[in-house]
Task: structure prediction
Amino acid sequence: MSNPATIQEKTIHDEVSKHYAGRINSGSCCGPAAGSQANATAIDLYADVELTAVPMEAAQNSFGCGNPTAIASLHAGETVLDLGSGGGLDAFLAARQVGETGFVYGVDMTDEMLALARRNAEQGGFTNVEFRKGQIERLPVDDQSVDVIISNCVINLSPDKEQTLREAYRALRPGGRLAVSDIVIDGTLDDLPVSEEQVRAALSWAGCIAGALTIDDFRRTLETAGFVDVEIDAKHRYKLAELGQDMESVAATLTPEVAEKLVRRFVSANIQARRAA
Ligand SMILES: C[S@@+](CC[C@H](N)C(=O)[O-])C[C@H]1O[C@@H](n2cnc3c(N)ncnc32)[C@H](O)[C@@H]1O
Result:
């Protein structure tokens, strides 16, 4: 008999994959759900000089909420792994930073995203990047094989974040580091008249909000996986219009003051940690 947890994980993976396959070249490069902007546009998150250094289709198909290579302090010769690499933008920026002596692996479970990323790599002449098909809960890389893990707005989408962060830890060499952008909840929703479960249930998982961890839970999950020196810095506090129609429906059931409080708990954050040497 199938394990219900496994069925739920498969349902989430299928929903997320279908959502992002459908977003490619959709013309709306922003929005976790229809009509929203929690995933900011590349123009908001990256410097012009970065965007002109990658294939146009990679820049146009950016679904992130931060700029992980801006915080990863990459060096020439390093091996980087991008969890949920999408159209490849962050992988290409990393590839330029680590140079010909370094290498970047991107992992994504969505065939359409992999095809796009591989097309972009060819078009941009990137020879130090490889995109592998796989789930971030079961990374298709050897133990202790990478120096740096990056990821942009993907860990919130994982149905099993403990497993994902254990896998990230396994893949890192001792002394290796993690530099991730993601959407998190700053604090708890305990003081609001709507429970965390109710809010999550009303939102689409693929929208990058329903599966967001609280900052404390993200820290705890990283530490339980073995990471040290965990730093989580809130960078952008969302407004209702940025969080999509699902959140607008939740907000409509609350007083304006409570709705405002709820929305402002959602932030994009830079998350950094290290595997001890
Ligand atoms: C919000 S998009 C971010 C893409 C990319 N990082 C960017 O910044 O444009 C999420 C991406 O992660 C992939 N993804 C989501 N959950 C995943 C999982 N559990 N395993 C592998 N890939 C996943 C999706 O297929 C999609 O390409």
